[in-house]
Amino acid sequence: MVDAILGLQWGDEGKGKIVDYFAPQYDLIARFQGGPNAGHTLYVADKKVVLHQIPSGVFHEKTINLIGNGVVLDPVTLKKECDIVASFGVDVRKNLFISQRTNLIVPTHRALDKASELAKGHDKIGSTLKGIGPAYMDKTGRNALRVGDLQSPDFKQQYAQLKQKHQQLLDNFNFEEDISVWETEFFEAVEFLKTLNIVNGEYFINDKIAKGKKVLAEGAQGSMLDVDFGTFPFVTSSNTTSSGICSGLGIAPQQIRDVMGVTKAYCTRVGSGPFPTELNDATGEELRKLGSEFGATTGRPRRCGWIDLVALRYACMINGVTKVIMTKADILDKFESLQVCTAYDIDGKEEKEVPFQMMRHTITPVLKSFNGWNCDTIAAKTFAELPEKMKSYVTFINEYIGVNVSHISNGPGRDQIVSVG
Ligand code: GDP
Ligand code: IMO
Ligand code: MG
Known about the structure:
Distance between the termini: 24 Å
Shape: globular
Oligomer: single chain
Radius of gyration: 21 Å
Bound molecules: guanosine-5'-diphosphate, 6-O-phosphoryl inosine monophosphate, magnesium ion
Number of strands: 20
Largest sheet: 10 strands, mixed
Strand order of the largest sheet: 9-7-5-2-10-1-11-15-19-20
Strand content: 15-25%
Helix content: 25-40%
Structural class: alpha/beta
Number of helices: 12
């Protein structure tokens, strides 16, 4: 049996906290896509930790964690993360496993990411510059090095061949970067990575499932950043939606039971691209300030706006979401009034579907107003304690998207979450 937790917006919905909250109910947490572009924040013993590649179940002693084949893995970031996790007393050699089919991010991928973004100029994606796009291009272009290759005696030769291909591309971009420091770090980190548990991920996970163990698939980014269904080309390079679970872990679709989709009570986006409900005004600034909306990976200010139900319903459809978890509801505590987007006015016509190419249209959100609840909710432990106005807000969302909110998160802490009903 496999359940999943994934993001329904443009990332940073609070997936890390939610995975950490549910982790004790599972035996294995498995990341199925993305790489160090992700920043998943959790609080362990009141200390903030941001995980990029290690699954967010790592702080639970009885839960083991798998980095799946669908991930692109940067050994340098992984080593740093392992050091942080170890400082909390976690033994990664006991509870972290890595698929040998996981693709590697090499230093020239980072240089290529930079070169590509520079060449795009005004049209840049706003990538995290972690080498994600180039690494996935090498996967589909059938050039990539994978974790299993580290065990091969000619790994350095394979690396040199790939680097040479990348150098040609960098020359085409007319881009120069001294990667010698990154390279030294990379080879040190590779030696470290070789000492971790490298497994045949697909057998590893299917064996657990066959033994009746409970598996939780952890997504990164959000559905609107999915390479097929997101706001292309302003997306990441992997399938962030539930389809990515099967290909990113090597499991069959009939194994998947609950798909838990995480959404903020409002909406944010970091990087370029369409964002119909964005607020470029004092209200947007207020959301950013109250929500501390700055990227967990890059520190960039996140763009803020009202919840977009057109995009949310679309994300629920694509993912087959069975439960919605709403985070950061407490951030709306101080607002007199709230808005939700119920349709897009596209070139003068009202639409309730996400269009093929958002950039080619002028989209104005059709907004419905709600009275804010205007009271503190961070201490609430039960649904009954939550204000009626918040309940009406949630009920409207349930009805619009056709899936019910099962949990409301009312603070960043592990215990700040309320089960609905
Ligand atoms: P992720 O990438 O989806 O894991 O999300 P991030 O960690 O990038 O961003 C979510 C931010 O919101 C983090 O700083 C969390 O600590 C914080 N957070 C998560 N849930 C809540 C919540 O319910 N209330 C508040 N105030 N903060 C939250
Ligand atoms: P988590 O898992 C928010 C965004 C980048 C950029 C676009 C492409 O923490 O939710 P990439 O580096 O993947 O080539 O960048 O996607 N992006 C994210 N935004 N949260 C993330 O991850 C993101 N990962 C990538 O800002 O717009
Ligand atoms: Mg994040």
